[in-house]
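Sat 14:20. Reprocessing the chain from the morning session after the first attempt stalled halfway. Input below, unchanged.
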Amino acid sequence: MPEASTAVFEKDNFNAEKYVKNLVQDCVGGPELQQTKQKIQSLSETVSSTLKKHVYENYMQFIETAKEISHLESEMYQLSHILIEQRNLLTTLRDESMLDDQKNIIEDQSLDPNVNEEQQNRKAIQLIKESLIGYKGNLDDKVFIHEGGLIELDSNDYRPICRIHLFLFNEVLVLAKVRNEKKLEFQTEYETKKIAVINIKDLDGVNKNAINVITSDGARMFQCINSAAKLEWIDKFEHAIKFHQLKKPKKAQAPQPPTSLKFEAPQKSTDSELLTLSPTASEMGRVIVENLPPEWLVTAPEEIQAEIAQRHFEDCLALLQKCEDHLAQDSTFHGAAEIGEKIKTLKGSLASVLMHELSNSQSRSLQAALRSSRRPLKLLVEMEKSREACGILLRVCTSAIRTSQRQARRNNLAVSELFFCDVALVASEFLRAFSAKASCTSALIVWCNMELQYFASQLIKHYLTKDTQLEMVAKVVEGVREPCLKLREIGLDLSYHMEGLLRSTLGQLLDEARYRLVDSIGRTEDPWQPYNLQTKTGLRTLLKEFDVLGIDFRAYVTGDTWINLTQATVSFCRHLLQTTESCAYLAKYDSLQRDSEMLIRELFLSQHSIKPPNSLNADMNFVAKNKTYMAEILLPIAMKRFERIAGKKPDLLMELHTQLRTVPPKPKPRSVYQTDVL
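Finished this time. C-alpha cells:
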C-alpha cells in the first residue's frame, strides 16, 4: 500500500490525476484503497485545522499591527506639526539671509563723492550694465534712482518664487533674476509711466513687508527685507513716476506745482497781524488758501491704492469717478495736474487688475468662468473698456468650451448638444453684460462663426470620417441640427452656416454610401421561393418586427410558417426603410434632399430590376408578385416615412412611383399540361 503523507502533496510537480492513477494501481483490493482514502481524509482535516490556526494567528498579529500603526500615526502627526513649524522658521531665516547676503551693486563699488552727480550717474549705469547678464537695452540716457534685492511672491498663496534684483531708473524698471552664483540675469523691464505701486497690508505675518507692482503684464508681488526698505521702495517709485510727469512739456507758462501734495493748515493770524498786511499781500494770501485742493482729494490716490490691494474694486471705481468729476469741474487749484496724472495712472492700474482677474478664469469650467467674470466685466464696462473686456471674455470662453469638448469626446458624451448649450450660455451672458454696448455684438457674431468652424472641423475629423455608416451619419447630423435650431430662441440662428460647413462632407458620404449599398444588391443568390420561417415563433417575431416599421405581412402568410414573398424581398423591405429613415434626416438640409432621394431611388431600382437566372426554372408569376409588392406597397410606405421625418415631399420617389405604375410587369405565360386520360 502506498504511503500517504503531506510531503507528497507539497511537491511542486504534484499531479492529482497521476497520483490517483498510481494509487489505484498499487492498492490491492478495495479495503486497502479504502484505508488510503481514510488516511488522505485525515491528512486533509489536519491541514485544514492547521490552516485555521495559522489564519487566527495572522489575524491576531494583524490586529496588533494595526494598533501599533495607529500609535505610530499619532506620533507621525505630532512629528509633522513639529517639522512644519521648523520649516516655517527655516524659511523665514532663509528669506532674511537671502536678502541680507544680496548686496547692492552700487554700494559694493566705491563711487567718488568728489565728482558731480552726472558723472556718478554714468558710473552707476556702467556698473549696472557690467553686472547684468543678457541685457541689451540702452541705459545711457536714464537717471539711476534706486536698487535692491527682493523676493518675488506668488500672488495666490504668497509662496516665495525666486530672488529678484530691481534697478529703478527715471524711465524704466529693470528686473534681474539672482542665480546660485549670485549672478544677475536680466529678466524683463517696464516703463515707469505704465506701472503703479500698491502698499500691501501685512496679513498675520503671511506676506510681511510686501508691495504689489502693477505692470503691463499683470500684478507682481515682491517682499522687502524690512518695513524701512518697503517704505523706501514706495517712496522711490513715487519719485520715479513724479520724475516722468515733471518731464512732460507744458503748453503754456504756468506756476510750477509743489513737490508734495500734503498741505499744512494755515496758522491763525491775529487781527493786528492782518491789519499790518498790505491789501496786495492779503489778497495773495486769500488766493493761495482758496486754491488749495480738498483734503479728501489729496489722500484719494493712497486710498485708491489700498482699495485695489484689498480687492474692493467697486469702491475704488466710485472714488476714481468722484475724483474725475471734481477735476472736470475745478482744475485751477495748485497740484491739479499732478493729482490728475496720478488718478489717470491708477485708473489704468485698476483696468489692468480687472483684466487680469478676467483672464484668470481661463482654467475653470465655462459656468465657473462666466460666474467669476461678471464682477470685472461690469466694472470694465463702466470704465469704457468694453472692447478689451469682450475680447478677453470670448478668449476665456473659447478655452473653456474646447476643453469641455475634448473631455466629452473622451467620455463618449453628446458633444453637439454640449457645444450649442455652451454657445447659448456664452451668448446670453455676453448680451447681458454688454446690453448697452451694441458695438460689441459684432465681436460675438465673429466669435460664434469661428467657434462653429472649429466645431465643424472636429466633428468631421472624429465622427464623419470616410466609410462611416449612413445610420451613424444621420444620427450625428440630427444631433447637431436640433440643438442648433434652439439657438433661435435667443435670437442667434447658426443653422444655415452649420449646413454650409457640413454640406461638402455629407455630400461625399452620401455618394460613398450610394455606391456601397447599390453594389451590395444581388450579391447573394435568390432561389425565388416563398420565405419559410421554420417555426411559428419565428414568424410571429418577424411580423412584430415589421409592424414597428409600418409593414403588415399577415396578408402574405400561408400555412404555419410561410410568407408568400422571397426572403430577399422581405430583407430588402427592412433595409430600404432603415436607409430611407437615415436619408430623411439628412434631407432636412435643403442642399442634401436631392442626393438623399437619389440614393433611395437607385437602391430601390437595383433590387427591383433583379431577374432570376435563365438556369433557374422560377415561377414568373411569383417573380411578378414580388416586384408588384415592392412597387405598390413598399415604395409608398418608404415615401410616407421620408415625408414624415424630413417634412418635405420626395419628388424623385413620387416620380419613380408613377413610372412603375404605368408600366406593370408582364408575367410569363405558364405551360398547362393536358392529358387524354379519361
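The chain has four domains: 1-96, 133-244, 295-458, 512-658.
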